[in-house]
Design goal:
mainly alpha
Length: 232
């Protein structure tokens, strides 16, 4: 592994990338949570672990912010169908991430986790609830379901004829799907991925005793990263 595996990662994703890497070190007891304020120790331990134990680390490059920004741009340019697809892509990435990290926290093997992630999103929601031990708030879940349903209609458009004499034959037509798209109040959905992420992150903070120490350590590492990169 190179001296700086994180160079080139967008700033919006960098903090979370460092954070989840630190959480991985804490999980494998490669760094002492009781020394979270010891700057010299944290930086030495972090660099040593990156070099000595790379296969144990979980370096999650979180991609949802890119899709969220693209969705907002699509919505501003009246490309609502594209915005819906991009928003749900962000939702799915967030869901997949938290299924994986909650399952790892519960000690489930990688093969079992991968099985969970190969099902459709509605089934993933069930796995997520089982791992959390509770359901996400009903209003949030309802909006996720609605976004998923319309996204699926767009992606799996049946190309039914727009003009037909058969009853019900237009249900899968693009003109009918466009009516659903135009009826979407996008203001209600543009912030949905972040709301879901915030809800799941709060739940993970409760479930993981290492989270406070990981944040403190990550602040130290991020500050050092910025200083080093300003000097180059």
């Amino acid at each position: 592994m190179g001296a700086n595996p994180f160079r080139g990662i967008p700033a919006s994703a960098r903090y979370k990338l460092f954070l989840w890497t630190v959480l991985s070190m804490l999980r494998y007891k490669r760094i002492d949570p009781h020394r979270a304020s010891d700057k010299t120790y944290i930086l030495k331990a972090y660099r040593r672990n990156l070099k000595a134990h790379p296969l144990e680390l979980r370096m999650y490059v979180l991609t949802e912010d890119e899709f969220i920004e693209q969705a907002r741009h699509a919505n501003r340019t009246k490309a609502k169908a594209s915005a819906i697809i991009l928003l749900f892509t962000a939702v799915e990435h967030i869901t997949n991430h938290y299924i994986r990290v909650f399952a790892e926290l519960r000690g489930l093997p990688c093969a079992e986790i991968n099985k969970m992630l190969r099902v459709n999103h509605s089934e993933k929601s069930g796995w997520l609830a089982a791992l959390l031990g509770f359901n996400i708030p009903a209003v949030l879940a309802s909006k996720v379901d609605k976004l998923r349903a319309i996204r699926n209609r767009i992606v799996h458009c049946q190309r039914a004829p727009d003009v037909s004499t058969e009853a019900g034959d237009k249900d899968g037509s693009w003109s009918e799907i466009k009516k659903l798209i135009q009826g979407m109040r996008m203001r209600e959905f543009l912030g949905l991925p972040e709301k879901l992420r915030n809800e799941l992150e709060r739940a993970y903070q409760v479930a993981s005793p290492d989270f406070p120490a990981a944040h403190e350590m990550t602040d130290i590492i991020i500050e050092d990263f910025r200083k080093r990169n300003r000097c180059r």
